[in-house]
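User: Here's a protein and a ligand (threonylcarbamoyladenylate). What would the complex look like?
Assistant: Let me lay out the input and then the predicted complex.
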Amino acid sequence: MTLIIDTRTEPERALAAACETLAQGLPVAIPTETVYGLAADATNADAISRIYEMKGRPRFNPLICHVADFEMARHYVDFDPISLKLAQAFWPGPLTLVLPMRPQSDIHPLACAGLDTLGIRMPEGFSRSVIERYGKPLAAPSANTSGKISPTSAEHVAADLGDKLALILDAGPAEIGLESTIVKVDRDEIRLLRPGGLDVADIEKLTGRPVLRPQTAGAAIEAPGMLASHYAPAAAVRLNAADVRPGEVLIRFGGKTLPGEENAALVLDLSPSSNLREAAANLFAYMKKADAFGAATIAFGPIPNEGLGEAIIDRIARAAAPREGEQA
Ligand code: TXA
Ligand code: MG
């Protein structure tokens, strides 16, 4: 039986149960501001193994390690000046930095897939309290079966991994709804490894430097998790649809209607008021809603390619990419 504890009504019980479960080397699903994570003690090989097993995740795909504060972060990684500036501005928050690991790091090599760098992030919200109380960094990928959509609620986690998990902490819907933005600073160049919940424009504004996109930086190879097909719902996905075909579920943006909409099985709007933050927060839940509806195909209306729109389009494009076992 999976125990689900609501952190809003029973925070103390949630913290105690999480720490006890983590100390046993078992993963716990924790709420972060981006998506729900499947967290385990980053220094414990058995615990990390269980994450890979539960998710069916390839072991060459490194995990992000989550810390409670700068002291913990500094114990594990070296900050270059630009990364430090980013961390000071945006932590706790939806930013992951890939940084060189320090010699005294006891992060288990399984967690970082044997790399000499660490993807590190200080999350916002209850997950940070868990790390603080536990006292050690937590490795946490999104709490979903590998290749599926990331969970933005405890219900999503329970539906996907519930039978395998001892404990889920429920803090309600994730505030941001998209995974963290991942960057790596390389000789004063800021490279984007994954667009996400932190707007790249905010990074550019703070540093006064351009952020290099994967195409220009070759970074897709550097973030091994960025396989083309990812974040996939069960339904097929049509990107940037100009019209709606009969029986499709339409997910649109900004109240913009599409021709053929009257024949849609269901119409969902990510943000009728054209707010990209609201759209990001709704994206994964709406894909799951479309799946639950039994849609064969989801058509996505156009999304503006600015601000968080970049990360939203990235996730929809991955959802639309050919799946494993399908012809490209
Ligand atoms: O918002 C998030 O980042 C969520 C929450 C739970 O924190 N976590 C998450 O983790 O999205 P995951 O495992 O689904 O994605 C981690 C990504 C992968 O694409 C992986 O390749 C990349 O981070 N990554 C981790 N460590 C890395 C490293 N040392 N170098 C390059 N990429 C790394
Ligand atoms: Mg993931």
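Summary: The pocket of magnesium ion (ligand 2) is lined by residues 141-142, 150 (CB under 6 Å).
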